[in-house]
Amino acid sequence: MFVAISFTNTFAQQSSYIQMLSQQNKWVDSVYKKLTRKQRIAQLFFVRAHTNLGKAYEDSVAKVIETEQVGGVVFFQGGPGRQLNLINRYQHLARVPLLIAQDGEWGLGMRLDSTLSYPYQMTLGAIQDDNLIYKMGQQVAYDFKRLGMQMNFAPDMDVNNNPDNPVINYRSFGDNKYNVAKKGIAYFKGMQDAGLLTTAKHFPGHGDTNVDSHFDLPLLPFTRQRLDSLEEYPFREAIANGVNGIMIAHMSIPALDSAKNRPSTLSRKIVTGVLKDSLQFKGLVVSDAMEMKAVTKYFPEGEAELQAFLAGNDIIELSLNLHKSILKIKKAVRKGLISKAEFEAKVKKVLAAKYWAGLNDRKDMSPIGLPGDLNRDPARQLIQQLSDAAVTMVKGTSDGIRLNPLQKTAIVSIGVDHYTTFQQELGRWSSACHLFTINKNTPVTTLNRILQMLKEYDQVYMSINDTRMRPASKLDYSNGVKEFIAAVCSQNKTITSVFANAYTLAGLPGIEKSTGLLVCYQMSDDLQRSAVRVITGQLKPTGRLPVSVNVFFTTGAGASL
Q1: HSE (CB half, 13 Å, CA atoms) of 314?
Q2: What is the per-residue pLDDT across 173-228, written as a single tens digit (0 to 9) for each?
Q3: 0.90 exceeded by the pTM?
Q4: Contact 206, 167 (CB under 8 A)
Q5: CB atoms < 10 A from the CB of 367, how many?
Q6: What is the distance between the alpha carbons of residues 370 and 238, in angstroms, rounded to a whole number?
Q7: Nearest one of 140, 136, 47, 135 to 94, comparing CA atoms
Q8: DSSP letters along 351-396, please?
Q9: HEC string of 224-243?
Q10: Residue 428 CB-density burial (10 A; 0-12 exposed, 13-18 middle, 19+ buried)
C-alpha cells in the first residue's frame, strides 16, 4: 500500500495530461523533429502482443516493432512474468519508447493468469461508496506500472440499457447514466492520480446494441436528442473531469452520420465533429480494435485505418494491414488530405502521453518479487471490501434472512458439481446443516427427490451460480433446474443468493417468492464470503441494483443506507 501511495504523491505534483497538452514540451518537440514522416505516422499505431502464443509469435511482433517503429503495444492473454520480460525486450527495440496498453476493466486478471481480478463493473455499479472505486483505480494503476505498462483501456462508460447486449452488459456500471458517470469518474481518477493513462469507452455509447461489433456492425438507430441526453452523458461528464483518453465504438449511427455502413470510428462527423468540436475533448482519441469485423467487413486492405486517421483518431490499434496502412496515410498527408497542424497535433499528443507517463526516462522493470507485489494483501483486502459493499438485498429484511444456527438447515448450491465457498463458509455457522449440489442439467427425477427431502428442513439457503468466465444475461441451466429453483423458493423458508449476472433474475420466474433474495452479481469467492457475512448478521447489505431486471427488481432496489 505504501508504494501505491508514493506513486500517487509523485503524480499529485504533476500537471494532468490534458493540461500538459497546452504547454510547450522540449522532449516532445525534440523527438518529433527527429522523426521522418513515416515514423511520425507509425507513432499512431499500436500492435497486438501475447505471452501465451509461443516464441515464434513473440518474435514476429518484435520484428514489426523493429521494422515499423510503431508507437505502442496492446497486450492480451498471457502471464505477468513473461509479459514483464517481453515488455523490457520490446522497449529495447524501439527508438522512441513504446506506450504499453492493456484492457484491464477489472484489473490485470482480465488478461493475465496468477494476478488479481477486481469485481466486474456491474458489480461495482451496486456500490454506494464511490471512494472504494477510486481506491481500486489506484491499485490497478500500481499493477499496470509494476509490469511496465502506461495505459489502461478502461473504464467502460457505456450505459447498458439493453439486457440482451452481447458485448457490454456486465462490463457496464449499469443502466442509470448518472451512476455510470460517477462510477467511471471515480475509477479513472484513481488510475490517473496514480500516474496511469486511461481510456473511457466506447463513445458515443455501446450500451443499447444487440450486435457484438467483434462480428458485425451494430446499428444505433436513435435520434440525436436521445444520444445527447443518454448515451453521451457519461462521456461529457468524463471530459469535464479530465479523462485522458476516449475510445470510439464501431457502430453505424445514422443520426450522426448517414453514410451507409460507415462505423463511427471512421466518421469525421462523429470523431471530430461531435467529440472534438462539440464536446471539446482535447485528450487522446483511440480507435477500437481495427481487426474487428464491424470495420474490416466494409473497409478492407488498410482503407479503414486511413479513414480512422482522417476521421480524427490519434491512436489506431490492432491494424490487420500495418505496413499498407502507414503507406496509405503517408500518401494522404503528402496530398494534403489533412492539415499540417492537425497531423502534428496527433503525433505530439501521443508523444506527450509518453512523456506524462515517464517514458522520457524509462527503465527496465525488475521481475524480482513480482508475484508478491501483484498479489499483495492491501489489494486483496480492497477486493473483499468492494464485494462486501456490492451485496444487494432486493427482498427480505436483515432479521428475516438471518441464519438460525440451531434449526435444521439445507444449504443448496445450483449450477455446480462441487461444494462452493458459500456452502463451506455458511456451513460453519450451523450445528445441523446438510449440503446439496445440483448441476446445470441434473435429471428431473433427481430434482424431485431432492425437493421432497428439502421439505424436511426448517430453513433453506440456496445459491444460484454462474461458473462461466463471462456471466451472460441468461443462465445455461436446463428447464428442469429452473423449475426446481421456483419450487424451492415457494415451498420453504428459502433465502436465495444469486452469484450471477443480475439480469438472470428475469429468466428465473418464481425466484421473487424467496423469503429473502441477495443479488451478488458474479461467482467469486469474495462475494460468496460477503453473502455469508450478511446472512450471519456480520454485514449490513448496502448495495443497490444498478440495472432494471423486471417489474419485481428495478434500478435502485436494495436496502436503504
Answers
A1: 24
A2: 999 999 999 999 999 999 999 999 999 999 999 999 888 888 888 899 999 999 99
A3: yes
A4: yes
A5: 14
A6: 33
A7: 47
A8: HHHHHHTTGGG--PPP-TTHHHHHT-HHHHHHHHHHHHHH-EEEES
A9: HHHHHHHHCHHHHHHHHCCC
A10: exposed
